[in-house]
């Protein structure tokens, strides 16, 4: 298995190449726009959907996963600019329809289109981002992009619900479309090259056969199961607790994740992202177990879960990009994002089957325990001969 080059790990950051460049700044425009486009209406659509809220969410998720796996082929043919533009249009434009028609069929159709658009934005955009960041500062660069995305989602998610309660649903959907489509103005300034330009394209099927890529993805997926559980069931578990508990916990988790991504990026560039996998997983598992406690433990658990999750977000993605050959950026982005979404879906689905009979505290404890077998994957990743 390919390991890290000495020129990448341990390089002094004061002698490293420039991180923030005009193309990366332009890329941050579409990062923020895609985050607004996804998160601003994310909790508003289920409120509008009512009885078909679950179907709308499932449609969004299924479309996202399905399109993530084929986006590398799209980028190889159309290039970064056209692919990212198409993703922004699909993510933003359909939401306008919900301002005039909220029938179940329309809600599901819009959710499918938005899921497809978000998939293209994350996979094509993520791969483009990787090409704009120097390899020696990849962890820090990904952390910077994650900070922009995380801070935006942290504000957009509650802002959508607040705006819908104050002004109604249509303004939220119109604002979503406007913010997302305005980012199209930044796309012409981005590089047009495809990952196959000058290099052989690495297809998703080949990437899935590489343990060097799939092991970090599976380790990350172990933590995303807990995210699926917390966003789905924590508000219900906190129903009998003081009113501030659920909002505080749901704010603590993404806030800690955003901060931890930055920390992990800088530390990973110095010492190697692989060293962060074990502490990240243990933090996430401990935090998930803490959700089974009282009000303070629940908020503290969400904080620890967010910190561990943020560390794993940065460390696994950086590790995968470091290991992929030139031309494999889209494949890495597709596999990592698919692991993210499938892990969340699996966590929410399995927890739903357990909650009815075991209760919320036991479900949180079982979720934490289910994450620990990923430690064996980390050991195999460090010592390939053990696989």
Automatic annotation (TrEMBL):
PROSITE patterns: MFS. Keywords: Membrane, Transmembrane, Transmembrane helix. Residues 172-387 form the Major facilitator superfamily (MFS) profile domain. It is a multi-pass membrane protein. GO terms for cellular component: plasma membrane. SUPFAM superfamilies: MFS general substrate transporter. It holds the Pfam family MFS_1. Signal peptide: none annotated. It is found in: Cell membrane. The chain crosses the membrane at residues 24-42, 48-70, 82-100, 106-130, 142-165, 171-190, 217-238, 244-264, 276-297, 303-322, 334-354, 360-378. GO terms for molecular function: transmembrane transporter activity. Its main location: membrane. The keyword Manganese does not apply. PANTHER family: QUINOLENE RESISTANCE PROTEIN NORA (PTHR23531). This is MFS transporter. The lineage of its organism: Bacteria, Bacillati, Actinomycetota, Actinomycetes, Micromonosporales.
